[in-house]
Automatic annotation (TrEMBL):
Name of the protein: Sugar ABC transporter permease
Keyword Hydrolase: no
Family from the record: Belongs to the binding-protein-dependent transport system permease family.
Localization in the cell: Cell membrane
SUPFAM superfamilies hit by this protein: MetI-like
Keywords: Cell membrane, Membrane, Transmembrane, Transmembrane helix, Transport
PROSITE patterns: ABC_TM1
Chain ranges passing through the membrane: 12-35, 77-99, 111-131, 161-189, 210-235, 267-289
InterPro entries (UniProt xref): ABC_transporter_permease (IPR051393), MetI-like (IPR000515), MetI-like_sf (IPR035906)
Phylogenetic placement of the source organism: Bacteria, Bacillati, Bacillota, Bacilli, Bacillales
Domain ABC transmembrane type-1: 73-288
Amino acid sequence: MKPLIRSTLRKSTVAYLFLLPAFFFYLYFVGWPALQTFYTSLTEWDGIGPKTFVGFQNYIDLFSVEPTFWIALRNTLLWVLASATLPVWLGLVVSSMLVRGKARFGKGFQLIFFLPQVISMVIAAVIWKWIYDPTFGPLNVILRSIGLDAWATGWLGDPKIVMFALFIIYLWQTYGFCVIIFTAAIQGVDPHLYEAAKMDGCGSAGQFRYITIPGIHQAITSVVVLMTVGSFSIFDLVMTTTNGGPGYSSYVISYYVYYQGFIQNRVGFGAAASIILTVFVLVVTRLIIYVRERDR
């Protein structure tokens, strides 16, 4: 037993030695800036002058005297919920049709669906900002040409629908990623299961529910985690299209952090909001992983 223990310890020591450089870089480029951000969140600072330590006052003010933060928090929560469901389900349906429906030119369709993923979010936002143009945008022109003048509106200028219009852009760019992942996962499901289900009289909907979804459960969970984490970083979309407007109706926490830190010069306040966003991302991600491990 002792030689076995010594061998195990030796291998573990060598493994940790190889991990040390990466761990050092992680601490230097991630851990140390995170600690600095947390300390900044405990101060009142304009980004230039000396810092004034105020403790947790910034956090208290965020939840008590900042109604804009609550708008940003609500929009972020709704965005995360939609991002973790709609692109995933759309990707599931489309990929199932491509694989199980044996669609012709399936590879070509996968390429077409994935193309928006290649475009940066800023470019996608510029394209859709032109599409949404209330006067010359193709969307309103088409609606007017088919007699739906009442539906033609300023999509990015209406507080009631601006978040819906922004999410359409996000959905258009991201669901192709889900299609690619789910297509590969479905192709790995044992085809004999579908044959047995078909012999038992199970239709396409039943096969999708009882074979496809359980068969690619791990892929679904992984995509949900990726989509959830990615949904928090939508600053570039909001910045390019609406700048948080009209009013504060399209504020999200990431844009709120930028506005407070770089426009209002309230760096400590913005740092506090970024810490809350970080904690929120960690909690949501951990919850999803916990559900996956429990189901496994």
